[in-house]
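Notes, p. 3: input format for complexes.
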Amino acid sequence: MLDIAIIGGGPAGLSAGLYAVRGGANVRLYEEMFAGGQIVKTHRIDNYPGVSDGPDGYALAARFEEHAAQFGLSIAYGSVSDLDLSGDPKRFTFNGETVEAKTVILATGAQPKTLGIAGEKELTGHGVSYCATCDGAFYKNRTATVIGGGDTAISDALYLAKLCKQVYVVHRRDELRASAILANAAKATENITFVWNSVPEAFLGEGKLSGVRLKNRVTGEVSDLATDGVFVAVGIVPRTELFREQIALAENGSVMTDEHMETSVAGVFAAGDVRNTPLRQVVTACADGAIAATYAMEAARVK
Ligand code: NAP
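Output follows (303 residues plus NAP):
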């Protein structure tokens, strides 16, 4: 039986794994696809202390993974299902086999929020995307539109501005939520144009995106903006589908924890973007992971 099963291989899960394996725990990390979580979609990370060379998220994730592996963390790739947190031990199915663990760290992260507007579902993958670093290259020398005004939207706009002829940023207010350094850089970029106080009402096109219908929230005016690609960056939702009926969630759907990262179920911890946290950064996810692993080891009585 494992001391600790970590579900999710983003910065939180990998940090928890590093701390647990160095602490002598019998631990395994379970990751659906590839390590890194949301950061693999980030083209440059320049606010993780000590890493000033501004790596892309994929490169930083690879460093995290290598670091944990150096200390012997075992990572299993595949899908977790039938998670049962009620008993002691905790149990789940992984690639058809039952896994038992004294404690579980939930580090399942978050996924992009959708807008729920006409054309969004149909045109996803045909001009509508949620990942600029994954799909930006399709719009080389063309026009792209980013929806949102937070760090993700503005990082995406800066990335796309290097590839695209023209980038529009559509934001529902006239002030950005993004940090000043990103906001100022975007405002100083010639081929980024802001469309303020506007919300998308529909994505246009048959089989392929041709534009976005916008409504100005101040004037009420409706207009169509022609664009080859749209990148939706309106926030994230915690990924809790595996366990949402079994533990206490905050109103926004994230997992409630105490200061030890322990959830409402004894022996079950949560770390990173899935957790109810006021700041979602790589550094805070890593810190959550370290705390969760430390108290999971205590709960599993690892010596
Ligand atoms: P976010 O900070 O929640 O920003 C979401 C943006 O989308 C806001 O500007 C919001 O407008 C807008 N929005 C929300 N719902 C909308 C809707 N239905 N229609 C139109 N616009 C809508 O999300 P995020 O940018 O993905 O960032 C998530 C977390 O990751 C944050 O903590 C962020 O700091 C962090 N992050 C950090 C970095 C970095 O440090 N480099 C990079 C990426 C992400 P309002 O402003 O009006 O609410």
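The two ends are 15 Å apart (CA to CA).
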